[in-house]
Design goal:
Number of strands: 28
CATH topology of the largest domain: Pectate Lyase C-like
Distance between the termini: 47 Å
Subcellular location: Secreted, Cell wall
CATH superfamily of the largest domain: Single-stranded right-handed beta-helix, Pectin lyase-like
Number of helices: 4
Largest sheet: 17 strands, parallel
Keywords: Cell wall, Cell wall biogenesis/degradation, Glycosidase, Hydrolase, Secreted, Signal
Helix content: 10-25%
InterPro entries: Glyco_hydro_28, Pectin_lyas_fold, Pectin_lyase_fold/virulence
Bound molecules: 2-acetamido-2-deoxy-beta-D-glucopyranose
Protein name: Polygalacturonase
Organism: Platanthera guangdongensis
Shape: elongated
Strand content: 35-45%
């Protein structure tokens, strides 16, 4: 008893030290050196307010003479010929207004309230002059018809790139008119070819960006993607799409670091938030998710790719009626690692798989083969370690409230559970482990002794290769 608790105490100490170092320290030091947005102060997400830059929505065109927004130069899409009746093609007006706004210091690219602006796939490219504000008060709507979509931009609709220090705000709506895209998805009708649809809003290759108070709805595919960017703050983002809309991730982060997502409400047909390859120091705080597939790291490692994701924190979230809660999903055959992840203070309401690590992920029209004996060599996987779950409570719709389905060749390590209380309305819940090592402490229900007991004989380290008893193959179709 004494020996065991000493080992646990030591392990705990090391773990917490590593987590705190890996996540909090790197965040603090990198951000203070940028002098940009302070994303991390004393554990709280703070938004440094610069009220002088706020654009009051009652004081729009023609000029801000005094007070809020003083010194700002409005560049109104209406002045460039936008009609805003939801019918006329306002793309050329948006393109001209963007060129103007981008070329001026202190410009406000203004999409006025009330208007409904139909805009085709458009690239809003930087670099722009300093202090650009993109003020979306009205609605931007995409053309509905997939067959007449611009073939030069098959995967993007509103695409912002190469911006530094810009803000996107205004309380408006970005509406992807996705219903015909959903109907033409191979997930909805198997006779359709499987091809990707546009992401509604993208921020790419940018830094020090803030996006706040926007609704993004009915995306053709993903709603909002952040790619190849650094130091991005999203707050007050609302995502709305039906639960049966295919692949409509809410917020998707790739190849980005220092991203904070706070006070967001996401209901959609796929992951509320997904974090993939080459992303680090991502903090999510005050998130409401549902309907949807939960909050996911992954999928990672598809087509034998390399993926690295580190320093992820989710603090304070409610998931309601989602297919998954907190999920890490990787394909077989990938490589790289997921390390230093904390999920804390999460409430589950009727979630199918509240806590899940799935290293046998397969989301393909054909069943993925289990690749254990491919050319007599075992296939790799994205290594998962240092994942902490703390203060997670609520209800599970299935009996497997916690499922750690890790790779036999690259087992999960240092999975830590503290203060977990998951139950189901009509039965007992349990924890399932495959090649998952770690420990739990404090109150943990369902009990998770399998994290300590995993005998490991069929996991990497055992000398002989033998086939697993149950081959978990998951499919999202
Ligand atoms: C926008 O797309 C429509 C078809 O949906 C097309 O007729 C129109 O020419 C496009 N506008 C521009 C500026 O490319
Ligand atoms: C699926 O798509 C095919 C071809 O586009 C169409 O003929 C069929 O009616 C569709 N099925 C359903 C159930 O919508
Ligand atoms: C993963 O990210 C790295 C670094 O940005 C990139 O070079 C690589 O292409 C990405 N891999 C995939 C599969 O997207
Ligand atoms: C978990 O909950 C306890 C009790 O409410 C609280 O004291 C502790 O700070 C929480 N842990 C985290 C990481 O927020
Ligand atoms: C609860 O009951 C429903 C309906 O009978 C069933 O589908 C579900 O699996 C049960 N849940 C558990 C955790 O046993």
């Amino acid at each position: 008893m004494g020996k065991v608790s000493w080992r646990i105490a030591m392990l705990l100490f090391m773990l917490i030290t590593m987590l705190v170092y890996a996540v909090a320290h790197s965040f603090d030091s990198e951000l203070s050196s940028t002098g940009g947005i302070r994303l991390w102060g004393g554990g709280e997400v703070e938004e440094e307010e610069e009220e002088a830059e706020e654009v009051s929505e009652t004081e729009q065109f023609p000029a801000w003479r005094s007070g809020a927004g003083a010194g700002k130069i409005p560049v109104n899409v209406d002045s460039f010929g936008a009609v805003g009746d939801g019918v006329a093609d306002d793309t050329p007006a948006f393109v001209s207004a963007w060129e103007k706004a981008c070329s001026l210091k202190n410009a406000v690219f203004l999409v006025p309230e009330q208007g409904v602006y139909k805009v085709n796939a458009t690239k809003f490219k930087g670099p722009c002059q300093d202090r650009l504000i993109i003020q979306i008060g009205g609605t931007i709507v995409a053309p509905e018809e997939p067959s007449s979509w611009d073939p030069k931009n098959p995967r993007v609709w509103l695409f912002f790139s190469n911006l530094v220090g810009a803000r996107i705000q205004g309380g408006g709506v970005i509406d992807g008119s996705g219903s015909k895209w959903w109907a033409s998805s191979c997930k909805i009708n198997k006779t359709n070819p499987c091809r990707g649809a546009p992401t509604a809003l993208t921020i790419d290759s940018s830094s020090k960006i803030r996006v706040k108070r926007l609704t993004i709805q009915s995306a053709q595919q993903m709603h909002f993607a952040i790619s190849r960017s650094k130091s991005v703050l999203l707050s007050g983002i609302r995502v709305k799409s039906p639960p049966d809309s295919p692949n409509t991730d809410g917020i998707h982060i790739s190849e980005s670091s220092e991203v904070t997502i706070q006070n967001c409400r996401i209901g959609t047909g796929d992951d509320c938030i997904s974090i993939v390859n080459a992303s680090s120091n991502i903090k999510m705080k005050n998130i409401e998710c549902g309907p949807g597939h939960g909050i996911s790291i992954g999928s990672l490692g598809k087509d034998n790719s390399v993926a690295v994701v580190t320093g992820i924190v989710l603090d304070t979230a409610t998931l309601t009626g989602t297919a998954n809660g907190l999920r890490i999903k990787t394909w077989q055959g990938g490589s790289g690692y997921v390390r230093a992840v904390r999920f804390q203070n999460v409430r589950m309401n009727d979630v199918e798989n509240p806590i899940i690590i799935d290293q046998f992920y397969c989301d393909s029209p054909t069943t993925c083969k289990n690749q254990f004996f491919h050319h007599f060599t075992q296939t790799g996987a994205v290594k998962i370690s240092l994942v902490m779950y703390e203060n997670i409570s609520g209800t599970s719709r299935t009996s497997k409230a916690m499922n750690f389905a890790c790779s036999d060749t690259v087992p999960c390590s240092n999975i830590v559970l503290n203060n977990i209380n998951l139950e189901s309305e009509n039965g007992t819940v349990e924890t399932s482990c495959n090649c998952a090592m770690g420990f739990d402490y404090g109150f943990v229900r369902p009990e998770a002794n399998c994290l300590r007991n995993e005998d490991g004989s069929h996991c990497n380290g055992g000398s002989s290769i033998h086939r697993r008893k149950h081959e978990p193959v998951h499919s999202e179709l």
